[in-house]
Design goal:
single chain, 313 residues, mainly beta, Porin, 17 strands
Length: 313
């Protein structure tokens, strides 16, 4: 059976067999994206491949990795409201005929400012101020079946720490990429494919519904300039309604778009749209190091500025 047919069967099983007790926005902390380059491209990265970020965006893309790579990102998100960090290490396996790669990644989103209050004589008073943090560890594997099809999987462990309550969860992301032509690539990543269960210390339980991320990448080169156009769509079935760009009944769609123009593979400028919000960025390659900067605009919150560093070995 062809790899594409196997993936289709898996998707159908997930869609028909998923439980119906998921909580809306339960996995929202994992949707902010990672890496200054992807974020400056509006978060459109499902069809991109060949770097350590693939463990998060689409594990199938890991198979295009040509050398070991370490990655680090830090951001004070939405005007220092939250600290957003990401660490990753990936290394290729096999040979040119059986390309594969492994990656391990750590995602953290946290901050302070949670006021714990009490009441006395009908008046509220502050007891203490606490912090909160969400963590996700990714263990990813990607493999190329041939020159035109790649697939991968990311197992993730989730830990939430909110004041006096914490939660654990285990999830699975399944990804695939296809390159039918030399100038176009398509990507698919089913996040939380088996529905991720969060179990709280209080006995409460939440489940994260699968999100189907579909993307395309169009690329070309003229002289010393290279251009890349990317587009992604997030398809959910959580009944988000007006919280999404497009919704119909329980289904919703959010869009991501990005454009990158680079010169000699050394300097790059980027612009994108994430849920309709502007993103901008730039990148510089110095030997084995890549330094990227990004700005994310938000209509209701302060702007976010990011810096990320990747190093190949």
């Amino acid at each position: 059976m062809r790899p594409g047919k196997i993936l289709l069967i898996v998707v159908l099983i997930i869609g028909l067999g998923g439980p119906s007790y998921a909580a809306k926005y339960a996995g929202e902390f994992l949707t902010l994206g990672v890496g200054a380059r992807p974020i400056s491209l509006g978060g459109a990265y499902v069809a991109e491949s060949g770097d350590a970020l693939s463990g998060y965006y689409n594990p199938a893309g890991l198979s295009a990795l040509t050398r070991p790579e370490a990655f680090f990102m830090h951001s004070e998100t939405f005007g220092a409201l939250l600290n957003h960090d990401y660490l990753s290490y990936a290394r290729p396996l096999g040979d040119s005929e059986h390309r594969a790669a492994l990656a391990i990644s750590l995602y953290r989103l946290g901050g302070g400012g949670i006021i714990v209050t009490g009441s006395r004589d009908g008046r509220f008073y502050q007891i203490k101020e606490e912090s909160h943090a969400d963590y996700a560890g990714y263990f990813s594997y990607g493999r190329a079946f041939n020159d035109k099809f790649r697939a991968g999987v990311s197992a993730k462990l989730i830990y939430r720490d909110i004041v006096d309550e914490n939660a654990f969860g285990v999830g699975l992301d399944i990804g695939a990429q296809a390159s039918p032509l030399r100038w176009v690539d398509f990507g698919l990543n089913i996040q939380d494919a088996t529905t991720t269960l969060l179990s709280y210390s209080t006995g409460r339980k939440e489940s994260i519904y699968p999100t189907c991320k579909i993307g395309a990448r169009f690329h070309g080169q003229k002289g010393r300039f290279e251009s890349v156009i990317l587009g992604d769509a997030d398809v959910r079935f959580e009944g988000i309604d007006y919280g999404a760009q497009i919704s119909a009944g329980p289904a919703s769609i959010d869009a991501h778009f990005g454009l990158e123009i680079s010169y000699m593979g050394k300097i790059a400028g980027r612009i994108g749209s994430e849920y309709g919000n502007l993103t901008l960025g730039a990148g510089l390659t110095l030997g084995r190091f890549n330094v990227d900067l990004a700005m994310r605009n938000h209509t209701d919150l302060d702007n976010t500025f990011l810096v990320s560093l990747a190093a190949g070995f």
